């Protein structure tokens, strides 16, 4: 079978190559040797493009597959990719100046200088190179190394043979060839994104107290620290989130599984998805989306199984509070013995200025930091400092985990890949297969902090932050307070696969960025440690709406891919179903139809009452009243504490339906209504304006309306855009639904799949694929996936490109 499949695919490629005209820009790079390896032994691949510029890459081995993928990604995203490589080399200040900000795709650094100091330090200390030397499965496999090597070669070959037309980097000196180490360094940046990458500024700027400084500073306020940690590690308002649901065979029309994946990621910059099909005949055949710079599909499907990821609630780092030597603030004590911090001097080149050298301080636990975000200061005093521990700094296994998924034949194989490679740093996995099985698992690389360890070793600060946010602050002066090890864990100090919250073969398995608890409301997951997430607490509005929807779908049964498509674009507003009627009635009951704004001005809100009552409770582009309710709800939930917002409080016994019944008598209700009306009128926006007239993106000279809604509204189809009243409403959409896939099976060899890459394959405004799928998304239309040979060959847009070194 394997040999036959190889022959069929290679024969099909040869036929297509002989009969299909190449694009003019690439015809000169064709197969001069007349075979599948046009470069006479060099790396090569065949790329077949179908509608919307989606490439189907066929190669003979992993290095060739990486080559074709690197080439195709460069063709679509060369400027975004090149910008990311400048980041991981620590060269942003050299090219762009030290004070401007990166795009936050590879870290949370607020300035180029701190970004460079961190990534240059990673490069200088050989952190990534050492991980590459570790044998698999602790280190990357041979296949992944070949993919990475091939990706770098493909990217470089595209640069060498093509002219850049994207104005973002056309003619720029910072667009340079890359090495395999660069590609792995980008993967490393993604792995530490939730740990060290989140605190780059704090790592790069932490300095010991000056001689003669006061011996002590006030300890962080515990309550304030708990609030700050909760906000910092909340997945609710971040620019990354996701929904995913898998349905078991007995809920579907044909007994086979279904999967709907809806990641919420930035619409611009280096954290975009890019979609492709990757094929090594007889070895690998997978389709889906990957983050830019990755040589393998990360969210996708094959002929037997489909999977998606959602950003998880696990806290992938912790702190150790250090007790310092009174005579030297760069020496700390462990079990009474002094250990000197490691001093790392990092030098960064700076545009139009002399190089900058800064010192970083590292301990056995990790780097010293002086804050966790802007609201949680961790002062380094003469007697106390804090070190950040991130176990993902020794994890380069994400690609191997993804490759294991790509080869899986069912959800059991997905779980086996997770257990073998243990490489997911900050996401859950939801999967379904053609045999009708479902899977949810929070298989993350997390510090092995048990509730018992936290109770025994937390400092006073940790006793506040751990229950509130899962952020452990352990006593660094005690050796017995270091995270332990599980026997089935690939690396020390992390949880092994047996401890991961996992749900198998539930009628539905769903996650919308809350903890694992309600992956299925009828089969709640319990018993996991706090570092994985919370239990028995109020769920987000998006989780509540999602569970209501998918439970009803599973209960109805007879589901098909079309039902998944309907769910994606239902654009129901759970916050409106709970509260809009009450809000409209309370508004209409206001004396004289007026409410008093926060500035004391009486505002006529009678028109708003009518608009709210008439609104269809959706966030379609044509919805009138959605914008008014959106602005009102944001203002109301900021002003009124959750405990006062609802008449019926949250109950862990009824977590999907509570809290409910809006408390319209709460101080702030009428004020929020008045201020919303004032805001919209000042911006020149009609109270019954269509949502799509004020929520949009611009592609070329066209303004494309965008449906969907913000986090607080609980909309499955999440969309976020910054508000700019002076400019007339929302600026362009910045994040939300990205690589969407609805996948099922019908008994044939070809999966039934519909996909959408909401922002398109290319960020180059000169590309035809800059906005084509965005227009599809606006119209709530989908791309029918071409997975099997017959479907690829029948594409009316088929173009075949043979690429080589």
Overview of this protein structure:
- This is Penicillin acylase family protein.
- InterPro entries: Ntn_hydrolases_N, Penicillin_amidase_A-knob, Penicillin_amidase_dom1, Penicillin_amidase_N_B-knob, S45.
- Belongs to the peptidase S45 family.
- With 805 residues, the protein is α+β, with helices and mostly antiparallel strands.
- It is 31% helix and 21% strand.
- The chain contains 22 helices and 34 strands.
- The strands form eight sheets. The protein has a ten-stranded mixed sheet, with helices on both faces. Strands 3, 4, 20, 27, 30, 31, 32 and 33 form an eight-stranded antiparallel sheet that branches. Strands 9, 10, 11, 14, 15 and 18 form a six-stranded mixed sheet that branches.
- Helix 2 packs across helix 6, helix 2 crosses helix 7 and helix 9 packs parallel to helix 13.
- The protein starts with a helix and ends with a strand.
- The N terminus is likely disordered.
Features:
globular, hydrolase, alpha+beta, eight-stranded antiparallel β-sheet, 805 residues, disordered N terminus
Give the oligomeric state of the chains in this entry, treating copies of one chain as homo and distinct chains as hetero.
Answer: single chain
Count the helices. How many? Answer: 22
Spatial sequence of strands, sheet with the most strands: 19-17-16-8-7-6-5-2-1-34
Sheet/helix structural class: alpha+beta
The general outline is globular
Strand percent estimate: 15-25%
Sheet with the most strands, sense and barrel status? 10 strands, mixed
Q: Which runs of at least 5 residues are low in confidence (pLDDT < 50)?
A: 1-13, 15-40
The N- and C-terminal alpha carbons lie at a distance of 31 Å
Average pLDDT score: 93
Q: Considering DSSP H and I runs of 4 or more, what fraction of the residues is helical?
A: 25-40%
The whole-angstrom Rg is: 27 Å
- Could you give the count of β-strands? 34
Family: Belongs to the peptidase S45 family.
Protein name: Penicillin acylase family protein
Keywords: Hydrolase, Signal, Zymogen
Signal peptide: 1-27
């Amino acid at each position: 079978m394997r040999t036959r499949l190889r022959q069929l695919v290679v024969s099909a490629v040869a036929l297509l190559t002989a009969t299909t005209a190449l694009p003019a820009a690439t015809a000169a790079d064709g197969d001069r040797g007349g075979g599948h390896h046009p470069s006479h032994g060099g790396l090569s691949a065949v790329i077949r493009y179908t509608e919307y510029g989606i490439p189907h890459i066929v190669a003979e081995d992993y290095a060739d597959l990486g080559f074709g993928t690197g080439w195709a990604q460069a063709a679509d995203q060369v400027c975004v990719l090149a910008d990311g490589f400048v980041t991981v080399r620590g060269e942003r200040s050299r090219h762009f100046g030290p004070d401007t900000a990166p795009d936050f795709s590879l870290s949370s650094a607020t300035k180029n200088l701190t970004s460079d100091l961190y990534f240059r330090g990673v490069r200088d200390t050989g952190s990534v190179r050492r991980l590459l030397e570790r044998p698999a499965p602790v280190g990357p496999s041979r296949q992944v190394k070949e993919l990475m090597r091939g990706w770098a070669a493909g990217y470089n070959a595209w640069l060498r043979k093509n002219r850049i037309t994207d104005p973002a980097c056309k003619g720029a000196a910072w667009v340079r060839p890359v090495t395999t180490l660069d590609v792995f360094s980008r993967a490393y940046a993604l792995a530490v994104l939730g740990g060290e990458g989140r605190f780059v500024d704090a790592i790069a700027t932490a300095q010991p107290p000056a001689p003669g400084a006061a011996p002590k500073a006030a300890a962080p306020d515990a309550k304030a620290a708990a609030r700050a940690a909760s906000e910092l590690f909340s997945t609710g308002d971040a620019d990354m989130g996701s929904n995913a649901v898998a349905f078991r065979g007995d809920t579907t029309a044909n007994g086979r599984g279904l999967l709907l994946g809806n990641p919420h990621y930035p619409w611009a910059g280096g954290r975009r998805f890019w979609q492709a099909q990757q094929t090594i005949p007889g070895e690998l055949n997978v389709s889906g989306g990957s983050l830019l710079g990755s040589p393998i599909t990360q969210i996708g499907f094959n002929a037997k199984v489909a999977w998606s990821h959602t950003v998880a609630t696990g806290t992938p780092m912790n702190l150790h509070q250090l007790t310092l030597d009174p005579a030297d603030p760069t020496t700390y004590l462990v079990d009474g013995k002094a250990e000197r911090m490691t001093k790392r001097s990092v030098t960064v080149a700076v545009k139009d200025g002399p190089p900058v050298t800064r010192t970083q301080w590292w301990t056995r636990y990790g780097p010293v930091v002086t804050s966790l975000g802007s609201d949680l200061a961790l002062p380094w005093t003469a007697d106390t400092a804090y070190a950040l521990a991130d176990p993902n700094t020794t994890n380069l296994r994400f690609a191997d985990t993804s490759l294991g998924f790509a080869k899986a034949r069912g959800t059991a194989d997905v779980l086996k890949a997770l257990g073998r490679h243990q490489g997911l740093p900050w996401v859950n996995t939801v999967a379904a297969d053609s045999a009708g099985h479902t899977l949810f698992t929070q298989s993350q690389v997390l510090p092995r902090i048990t509730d018992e360890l936290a109770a025994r070793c937390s400092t006073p600060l940790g006793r506040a932050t751990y229950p509130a946010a899962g952020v452990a602050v352990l006593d660094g002066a005690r050796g017995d307070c270091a995270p332990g090890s599980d026997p089935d864990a690939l690396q020390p100090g992390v949880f092994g696969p047996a401890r991961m919250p996992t749900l198998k073969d539930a009628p539905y398995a769903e996650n919308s960025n809350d903890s694992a608890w309600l992956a299925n409301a009828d089969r709640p997951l319990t018993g996991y440690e706090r570092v994985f997430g919370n239990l028995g607490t109020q769920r987000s509005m998006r989780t509540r709406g999602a569970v209501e929807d998918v439970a009803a779908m599973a209960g109805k049964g007879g589901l098909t891919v079309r039902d998944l498509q309907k769910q994606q674009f239902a654009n129901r507003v759970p916050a409106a179903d709970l509260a809009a009627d009450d809000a409209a009635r309370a508004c209409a009951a206001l004396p004289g139809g007026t409410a008093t704004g926060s500035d004391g001005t009486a505002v006529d809100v009678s028109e708003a009452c009518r608009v709210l009552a008439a609104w269809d409770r959706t966030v379609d582009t044509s919805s009138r009243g959605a914008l008014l309710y959106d602005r009102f709800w944001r203002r109301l939930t900021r002003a009124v504490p959750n405990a006062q917002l609802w008449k019926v409080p949250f109950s862990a016994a009824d977590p999907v339906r509570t809290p409910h019944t809006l408390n319209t008598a709460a101080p702030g209700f009428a004020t929020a209504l008045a201020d919303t009306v004032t805001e919209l009128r000042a911006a020149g926006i009609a109270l019954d304006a269509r949502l799509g007239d004020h929520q949009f993106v611009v592609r070329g000279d066209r303004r494309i309306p965008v449906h969907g809604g913000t986090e607080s509204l609980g909309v499955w189809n999440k969309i976020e855009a910054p508000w700019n009243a002076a400019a007339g409403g929302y600026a362009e959409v910045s994040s939300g639904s990205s690589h969407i896939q609805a996948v099922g099976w019908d008994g044939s060899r070809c999966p039934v799949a519909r996909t959408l890459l909401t922002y398109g394959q290319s960020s180059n405004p000169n590309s035809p694929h800059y906005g084509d799928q965005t227009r599809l998304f606006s119209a709530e239309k989908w791309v029918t996936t071409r997975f099997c040979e017959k479907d690829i060959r029948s594409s009316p847009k088929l173009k075949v490109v043979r690429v080589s070194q």
